[in-house]
Amino acid sequence: METFLEFLREVLKGIVRAVSAHIFKRTVLEKEKTTLRRHKQKGGSQKKI
């Protein structure tokens, strides 16, 4: 019974670690990328003067 609880505890640790890494990556690392991107040019016909 103890080995099963230890196994379950390790599985939960792995899940929590993976979820926290995903959240960290999404919130911290992807925000840095958005500041470096350029705005897309608008398509369609534009008048030239």
Keywords:
mainly alpha; 49 residues; single chain; 0% strand
Task: Describe the oligomeric state of these chains in a short phrase.
Answer: single chain
Largest sheet: none
Nearest-integer average pLDDT = 81
Class derived from helix and strand content: mainly alpha
Count all strands and give the number: 0
- Secondary-structure element string: H
Q: What percent strand?
A: under 5%
Q: How widely separated are the two ends?
A: 81 Å
Shape: rod-shaped
How many helices? 1
Helical proportion, percent range: over 70%
Instruction: List unreliable stretches of 5+ residues.
Output: none
Report the C-alpha radius of gyration, rounded.
23 Å
Account of the protein in words:
By secondary structure, this protein is mostly helical. Helix content is 71%, strand content 0%. It contains 1 helix and no strands. The chain has one helix spanning 2-36. The longest helix has 35 residues, at 2-36. It is rod-shaped. The model has no long low-confidence stretch (mean pLDDT 81).
Question: Brief overview, please?
Answer:
The protein is 71% helix and 0% strand. The protein is mostly helical.
Please outline the helices and strands.
Layout (H helix, E strand, L loop, with lengths): L1 H35 L13
